[in-house]
């Protein structure tokens, strides 16, 4: 078994060492690991730090650099270069748990209808970021998990490499970021995920990360998000929780406003969706203006 770990990084020379050490500790499980790094135009000493890792020769490391074009572009460049049976996308300020690759060895197999195994993600206090799956080996989709089953946290995905390479992160208007969920929902149409209640990664939220600065991300990159929520409104929504429907409508209104989309209501195909959006439009715009 071979696993390709893909890491886009920007000015994270001070955090890459923790990820590197976690990869080295997991070599004892006998899985072949390759680490592909895309430096997204860092201005710190990322290149020198990675070069020291390469010189240690503990595992194969491929380092490449692009002009600052964002995380999604970096991953789009790395995915075709991966040679593993599985692909894991790991941010430069995340790292793997002590037994992560043993969990992969025990629970992952190449199944034609499974595009990813979804493991748990812990925060730095070792608390689960989200909910447990109802059972180990639960087969579902990412859309159903978040919009019908009420998940609101994060999961660490181990992709079937062959399937993952069939998809890319779609960016709009030369934007640099889009939620990973947009690609996941397209994968959901043909394949499933399996949920495993074991922690694969530890995530450290940083003050300059995407999560902490989500409002700025929304303002900079609204077009991809608009397309994402438009696509959701065009999906079968039977069984979606009421709270999630409100979430969809609110964000559709938000990104209609941020993109200055005219006649956005036409992009909602169902009458019931149009009624809710119209009813929520004015209070939604007032709230948006107060927030932004």
Give a summary of the structure in a few sentences.
The chain has eleven helices and nine strands. With 292 residues, it is of the alpha/beta class.
Task: Note down, in words, how this protein is organized.
With 292 residues, this protein is an alpha/beta fold. It folds into two domains: 2-209, Spore Coat Polysaccharide Biosynthesis Protein SpsA, Chain A, CATH 3.90.550.10; 221-291, no CATH class. Helix content is 38%, strand content 20%. Strand 1 (2-9), helix 1 (16-25) and strand 2 (32-39) form a beta-alpha-beta unit. Helix 10 (242-258) packs across helix 11 (271-291).
Number of strands: 9
- The CATH homologous superfamily of the largest domain is termed Spore Coat Polysaccharide Biosynthesis Protein SpsA, Chain A
Radius of gyration from CA coordinates: 20 Å
CATH class annotation of the largest domain: Alpha Beta
* CATH architecture annotation of the largest domain: Alpha-Beta Complex
Helicity, as a percent range: 25-40%
Rounded to the nearest angstrom, the distance between the terminal CA atoms is: 48 Å
* CATH topology heading of the largest domain: Spore Coat Polysaccharide Biosynthesis Protein SpsA, Chain A
Shape: globular
Note the beta-strand portion.
15-25%
List the helices and strands in order: EHEHEHEEHEEHEHHEHHHH
Q: What are the low-pLDDT stretches, counting only 5+ consecutive residues below 50?
A: none
Number of domains: 2
Structural class designation: alpha/beta
Largest sheet, in brief, is: 9 strands, mixed
Let me know the average pLDDT. 96
Helix count, per DSSP? Answer: 11
